[in-house]
Specification:
Length: 416
């Protein structure tokens, strides 16, 4: 199995261009199912998750043309199947996002139950609650969820939890429903704003995306558009933490600083210098860094997708840090791997207590999910000796050419 090998000790120095956001491009590609026109999507990151979601769309009849490494043309005017098979949904939970658009276009959707994953059970009850509120009948059989709705009507839906996926699925379904749908306690992530902008550019009528109340006025059909994906705030944050842990300095291009407020605030609290420069960020870590406490929350709170990367950083700064994970119930798998590198971490329920120490040492470790994988690369960059990271298919799901990008700023890193 392929591994990533990191020889620690090099300070990162240079410029990295951040790719388009994984968690924006996936719902945007899915939302092209709503259109009977031609959609061109630009700044698409090269990820295995993008390949998977394109396979799912192909399965239902979408025509997808790769224009270049970062541009896709998608035409869904002839989608003819309403089923997303176990093969794809089990590979990637975000496949369940096709449910809403299939329901809206074909009146029926059949999706394999999404398995749990390393970071938690991740049910889709809130998605289904939204579909039922709009008139769909739901049944579960043979491991599949089957939703049918001869007619979808707008509804007022309160989300018990501001689920990103549920908000996205309901926005997409409501876009072609009869009447107005209002989502209350909606998720506010920037990727949801990008999705709404994409649908509105096809003729949709969505207001309030990025706030707790989203209003969707259904339209009869959606047309063609060209859309550029927003930059990946989590990829950017991962590189910022890597600069911090190596005591280096990086210029990140293609960044929307506004999407990174909690991450920037935390890094400044730790002692990192950060400056906004045009549509980029300059990061320098030349001062001694100190321990901080972190609590993950739905946006605009501190992102759960940055928790693992910060844990790596906090293992080597002086002092005791407490990281509390409130979004997923099992997102500390990377702690065990960091311990193999010498980290002092104690898990107490939803919190991890990290005793900062001087140095990590390189070891054989394995990625349990894509952000844990990034965290292990980050730890390896600062560790004494060589770190070998296995299960790197997790990393390739969500990071576009991460080894090349790190190597371009001086890291001693390779794939083998
Ligand atoms: C999205 O996942 C992201 N994935 C995740 O990023 C991210 O961690 C997460 O949002 C939170 O920000 C994509 O956008 C493709 P949720 P999603 O629905 O939509 C519970 C990464 O590393 N919940 O907001 O699955 C759920 O169990 C990935 O890039 C229900 O209980 O997240 C979880 O505890 C990891 N019922 C919490 O809500 C539901 O119906 C957050 O889930 C739906 C969710």
């Amino acid at each position: 199995m392929e591994k990533i090998i990191v020889q620690g000790g090099k300070q990162l120095k240079g410029t990295i261009t951040v790719s388009g956001a994984k968690n924006a491009v996936l719902p945007v590609i899915v939302a092209s199912l709503l259109s009977d026109g031609a959609c061109r999507i630009q700044d698409v990151p090269r990820l295995t998750d993008v390949e998977t979601i394109c396979d799912v769309l192909g399965e239902v009849g979408a025509k997808i043309k790769i224009i270049d490494a970062h541009t896709l043309d998608i035409n869904c005017n002839k989608i003819n199947k309403f089923e997303a098979s176990y093969e794809y949904v089990s590979k990637m939970r975000a496949s369940n996002l096709v449910m809403g658009p299939l329901l809206a276009r074909l009146g029926k959707a059949k999706i394999s139950m999404p398995g749990g994953c390393a970071i938690g059970t991740r049910p889709i009850d809130l998605h289904l609650k939204g579909f039922e509120a709009m008139g769909a009948r739901i049944k579960l059989e043979h491991g599949y969820i089957i939703a049918e709705a001869p007619r979808l009507t707008g509804a007022r839906i309160y989300l018990d939890y501001p689920s990103v996926g549920a908000t996205e699925n309901i926005i997409m379904t409501g876009s072609l429903a009869h009447g107005v749908t209002v989502i209350e306690n909606a998720a506010e992530e920037p990727e949801i704003v990008d999705l709404a902008n994409f649908i509105n550019s096809m003729g949709g009528r969505i207001k309030g995306a990025g706030t707790k109340i989203v209003k969707i006025e259904g339209v009869k059909n959606l047309g063609s558009t060209t859309h550029t994906i927003i930059p990946d705030r989590i990829e950017a944050g991962s590189f910022m933490v890597a600069a911090a842990i190596t005591g280096g300095e990086l210029m990140l291009e293609n960044v929307i600083a506004d999407h990174l407020k909690p991450v920037i605030a935390k890094l400044i609290e730790i002692g990192v210098e950060i400056e906004e420069v045009g549509n980029g960020l300059y990061i320098r870590a030349s001062n001694p860094l100190k321990a901080v406490d972190i609590k993950t929350l739905p946006y605009p709170g501190f992102p759960t997708d940055m928790q693992a990367q910060f844990m790596s950083l906090l293992t080597v700064v002086q002092g005791t840090s407490v990281l509390t994970e409130t979004v997923f119930e099992n997102r500390f798998m990377h702690a065990e791997e960091l311990r193999r590198m010498g980290a002092d971490i104690k898990i107490e329920g939803r919190s991890a207590v990290v005793e900062g120490m001087n140095r990590l040492t390189g070891a054989l470790v394995r990625a349990s999910d894509l952000r844990a994988g990034a965290a292990l690369i980050i730890a390896g960059l600062a560790a004494e000796g060589v770190t070998e990271i296995g299960n790197i298919y997790h990393i390739d799901r969500g990071y576009d050419r991460i080894v090349d990008k790190f190597r371009s700023v001086g890291a001693n890193i390779s794939r083998s």
